[in-house]
Amino acid sequence: MSPSIVPEKSIFYKEKHIKYWLRCLKTYLPTAYTSNDSNRVTLACFIVSALDLLGVLEENTTSTERAGYVDWIYHCQHPGGGFRAFTGNIVGEEDEANRSWDPANIGATVFALTALLVLRDDLERVKRKECLEWVAGLQLEDGSFGEVLDGDGLTEGGQDVRFSLCPALIRWILRGDSPDAGGTAKDMDVDRLVDYVKSSRTYDGGIGKAPHHEAHGGMTYCGIGALTLLDKLPQENLDSGDDQQFLQETLEWLVSRQTAHIYYDSDEDDEDEGFRMAEPAAAPQLCHEQAASAFGSHGVSMAPPAPLQPSTEPLQIPEEMLWAGLNGRCNKPADTCYSFWVGASLNMLNKVYLMDFNANRRYLLDKTQHIIGGFAKMPGDPPDIMHSFFGLAGLAIMKEPGLKSLDPRLCISVSAREHLESLPWRKGISSNGAKKPDEHDNDGINVLTAGVSYMAMSGG
User: What is the pTM of this model?
Assistant: First the structure.
């Protein structure tokens, strides 16, 4: 049983979030989003997925509207497999002259497929064989993946752990758990991909962008997600000593991401990021110091916690520790999106109970939830589409009332994933029996109580 959220004054203003996302769906986005037009599929996916998580997508859209959204996404499908990120680079018939200007994009393909699932499409119009072979053709010698194929068929872009999750996710949706499910489509080299992800592990336990890079919360999520979707995530007490060390060190690093450092310090340069400064809280311990103080000098135990004995004494929590979000790198302030990246990683490791739900929930609802709906990156910032979605996703990981359950691997609702698995063509690609993350017991305790202290699919 997952840890519960203690009722308190922090309020999730669901109706405001619904209004925020309906504005994003049915009116023009602010001028600042103009530069993101070439990523319109991504914006579309966030918008419909957010409304789905809120449980209001169908009641606020007609079947005709949803069919139009689906048709627009298919208009982005590339004849050679995969999806474009928007329709603006469709410059005519596919030929030698325009091939390099009109490539499919691996990230856009992920967002297109997941958006189609959220919209309850049957994926019958997806060019499955072409897409799977195109993805396999993006793999490089070191096992990593690029982002696009240029006009000469050469792989460009990518080559970091983010682009390791993308092919694993596309493969799982279209091929399932069986390597033979893609018919005659060439499969990627799974073992080389797994080796690349593992080679990106860092000395302190997280996963970096690539080998020898700094550990990062988003990259760690991508690495764990890729291994999970490929059914290659090491299993506790079953795999080799090196894999057990990987699990232990990754777990400790993830738990260390929760921090009461929720503002930029006054001596940090915020000009490049455009953040509005806020008064810093009292400086808490950070990173591994914080984890050591919370979990003892021996690090984080992989074993489930022992049952607590009832106590009549209220737990005294320092005021500055009441709001503790999650950051993505050592010695950085908390950021809304890492409530998902880190929380979902812990979920896939079946250790989500090690996160202090209530302190993170207070951070999201008291500090970054915006008065008009949506979530900001940090306290004092305006809401934006990406952080607003991942704020909801982070709350869904913690089973926030009023939100659907979320599949942490696919970053869509469990009901959207179940729709995929109910499709006739997909039923033949049966699961190998491994539990999905949301089906794990994730047995744990309430960590706080334990004392551990322009519209995306219009036009084009």
Answer: 0.84
